[in-house]
Amino acid sequence: QAAMYAGLQELGVANGEDLKETLTNCTEPLKAIEQFQTENGVLLPSLQSALPFLDLHGTPRLEFHQSVFDELREKLLERVSAIALEGKVEERYKKLEDLLEKSFSLVKMPSIQPVVMCVMKHLPKVPEKKLKLVMADKDLYKACAVEVKRQIWQDNQALFGDEVSPLLKQYILEKENILFSNDISVLHNFFSPSPKTRRQGEVVQKLTQMIGKNVKLYDMVLQFLRTLFLRTRNVHYCTLRAELLMSLHDLEISEICTVDPCHKFTWCLDACIREKFVDNKRARELQGFLDGVKKGQEQVLGDLSMILCDPFAINTLALSTIRHLQDLVEQDTLPRESPDLLLLLRMLSLGQGAWDMIDSQVFKEPKMEAELITKFLPMLMSFVVDDRTFNVDQKLPSEEKGPIPYPSTIPEAFTKFLQENRIACEVGLYYILHITKQRNKNAFLRLLPALVETFSDLAFSDIFLHLLTGNLTLLGEEFALEEFCTSLFDGFFLTACSRKENVHRHVLRLLLHLHHKVAPAKLESLQKALEPTKQSGEAVKELYNQLTEKLELRKPSPAEVTETPSMELPLPTVPTPASR
């Protein structure tokens, strides 16, 4: 009740408490009520004669006054919005400030609160004292517009952090849910949505709205993302950093885009990510940005490296690298002679070094190892040549020498590169994804043993396993073969299942999708090997239960096994169309 009349007394307007007091201390209550109505009703002479007419229709006075009040409030809200757009800037804000001064005492009165909030919303600078009062009251803070909250947040990083934190958690969870989704497909994977579609996501849109045109809030969000990236090494924060900037770019918020030194680089890279390829023209642009980092501005490399560490950027750069290597094979050209390829590696290197650079605060591009270009990449090209030679041999008429076997060994140096060089490992993994997508079983089985030990266990990272499981659906028919399953499961997946829960989850995802292709004996041994332990998380147990249920449904019932259907009944003859 008190909230309903909050602040009226300060303005000298009678409220419910005044009426209560009047009625308590008077001898003629009816006369007192009439007098209160006259003093506090709508002071319009022509109205007095019309009110009895409403009484005849049984319309309560409350209903009448409420409708007048609502109508006036709507008019006032419209007027406030109009004042915010008319006349000279100083004049309009002076009017609004005066209005706020007069009405602020009623801010807790529910019926008047929207008007006070509307006035504050249109003021670019609400008086500090009033902001503090709003901030101190939970209900008022909740009710005020985002424009007012921005003014509160920009001087209260902790409060802004509390608002942003749940959104960042939600964002990471959404990314992980996509990576662990039970829908395994080579066509629709983690990297399928276009950049523009991704930034329509709830979290990016909410953050964009919270920031508005406020550079200080934008910087705070970037600081949160850097800190969380350092603390967790989670690369999805790098994606959000790029998506947020491009979301503000879509809305043409020049106040922020012009002061973010990464804007044009991110915009160009965004176009490459959309095409999933870095073409020559854009490669030159990107190189221009990197070469243009001036002395004394090296700190921008920390931000650029975070933009390049976004998995969507790494994916685009790695796919482009594989495509370039194939082109070089066609052209009989060595990697060191291709400036485009060297630029891709330079950007991959900068992206992969993001964490170290931000952690050490040493802002200079990582040095590229010469052997990556002179030994590792030619080795990958030799694998491409092996494939092409084998395919040609298969087509030649076989003479007495018999069929030429596919090369089964891998150079020791290849395995060593995957273990010790991050860029080599990333490119090597993408080459393996490439041959799997081409349904090249021979090449896949040849290179698979090199994945057991890789740099930072990259071969057991969620993004790689998500893509690999999707591509393996193209080799579905191979799962019936003992040799293939032994190499894939025993030789690769099961080596890490017990120590890495995420690998356990990805194997179960794959089997849920392809269990009907696997030989029964192998499936049984896999089911035993993949049984969750007491330490296993809920997600693993849930997936294992789903798999068990699916396998139970596949088992024929005892009745089906023992009884053979009777065929004694003669089959009815069906007339063919011609004999009708």
UniProtKB/TrEMBL annotation:
Family matches, as Pfam families: COBRA1
Residue segments, region Disordered: 554-580
One GO BP annotation of this record: negative regulation of transcription elongation by RNA polymerase II
Gene Ontology CC, one term: NELF complex
Domain of life: Eukaryota
Name of the featured protein: NELFB factor
Native organism: Bucorvus abyssinicus
